[in-house]
């Protein structure tokens, strides 16, 4: 089972300095859609190639990141390429939807 990194203000530089693709889910434990879709994102992460960084941010523990990346709705999945935000996916989506978005992003490499 793939261990998902938990990111906050202290370690998010790993994403911002990563050369390659990274996918980060912003959510909160009190958010019903976040709770409902947790397993969907975890399934997506399990299917993702090991060269892609995948992690999560609890918005309650990372208010600066939440503001910096303009997270207004939860859950939100952000995709980064070489440290730059390239795609924002708000709301609950299927694992297949995330995989398709990731495939399209990787094709553009």
Automatic annotation (TrEMBL):
Residues making up the signal peptide according to the UniProt record: none
Pfam families: Thioredoxin
Keyword Transmembrane: no
InterPro entries listed in its UniProt record: Thioredoxin (IPR005746), Thioredoxin-like_sf (IPR036249), Thioredoxin_CS (IPR017937), Thioredoxin_domain (IPR013766)
Keyword Membrane: no
Family recorded in the similarity comment: Belongs to the thioredoxin family.
Function field: Participates in various redox reactions through the reversible oxidation of its active center dithiol to a disulfide and catalyzes dithiol-disulfide exchange reactions.
The name this protein goes by in its record: Thioredoxin
Species, as recorded: Kosakonia pseudosacchari
